[in-house]
Amino acid sequence: MSPNIRIKDLPSRERPRERLVESGAEALSNADLIAILLRTGTQGASALHIAEALLHRFDSLDRLARASLDELQQTKGIGRDKAIALQSAFTLAQRMAREIRQEAPLLDTPERIADLLREDNRLYGVEQFQVVLLNTRRKLIRIERISQGTMDTILVHPREVFRAAITANASAIVLVHNHPSGDPSPSEADIKVTRDLIRAGQLLKIDVLDHVILGSKTKERSQDYASLRELGYFYS
């Protein structure tokens, strides 16, 4: 698309807002949806062209969500108001994820754990170790953030992990942390911590069900998380 073509000058079938009405939001691309947020007041370059430039610059929605107001405004066509609109949209997504969490969902698969915590972890620039506390029915009691590390390492002690579980009267826990690099593959340190915590849980009669590492999708990687149980690092 030429950068000087405005959305209102396009045929109706090519306008993101009209296509959303006709086909639903799921039928639109990421660039289309961002263009709808940016449409009002856009002059010169079309909102869709600016949206495509944003996605090219930041490479993924994950990196776009992490961008500061100043970083967003470095893209031509993004002023203060449009940068604020983008940050507002991503913040609403985080708050929606928190509302879903409050409904005490069943958390019996790594996919459900990832869905629960994905938005909260998306913006973290360093590793954050969290524990999902579950009742006997594998439903959420609450989530505890245990410790914070650096870009590629984190220190976790069983005492902090199981103090939270005992206080909440949890019967099981799921360990979760993020990899800011985007690659959710477990490190040797991740594997060691997991096995140490499994052994501690066995002594305390609290099941450690899984350790889920959150990352980001790429063209080569369709899944943005890794489950150490699925990878075979849990004892049978």
Indicate the topology.
Layout: H1 16-23, H2 30-38, H3 47-58, H4 61-66, H5 69-72, H6 80-101, H7 110-122, E1 128-134, E2 140-148, H8 158-167, E3 172-178, H9 188-204, E4 207-214, E5 225-227
Parallel strand pairs: 3-4
Antiparallel strand pairs: 1-2, 1-3, 4-5
SSE string, helix = H, strand = E? HHHHHHHEEHEHEE
How many distinct helices? 9
Hey, roughly how much beta strand do the residues contain? Answer: 5-15%
Architecture (CATH level 2) name of the largest domain: 3-Layer(aba) Sandwich
Question: Rg to the nearest angstrom?
Answer: 21 Å
- Specify the overall morphology: elongated
CATH topology of the largest domain: Cytidine Deaminase, domain 2
Q: Tell me the span between the first and last alpha carbons.
A: 55 Å
Give me the secondary-structure category.
Answer: alpha+beta
Provide mean pLDDT, rounded.
84
- Helix fraction bin: 40-55%
Our count of domains comes out at 2
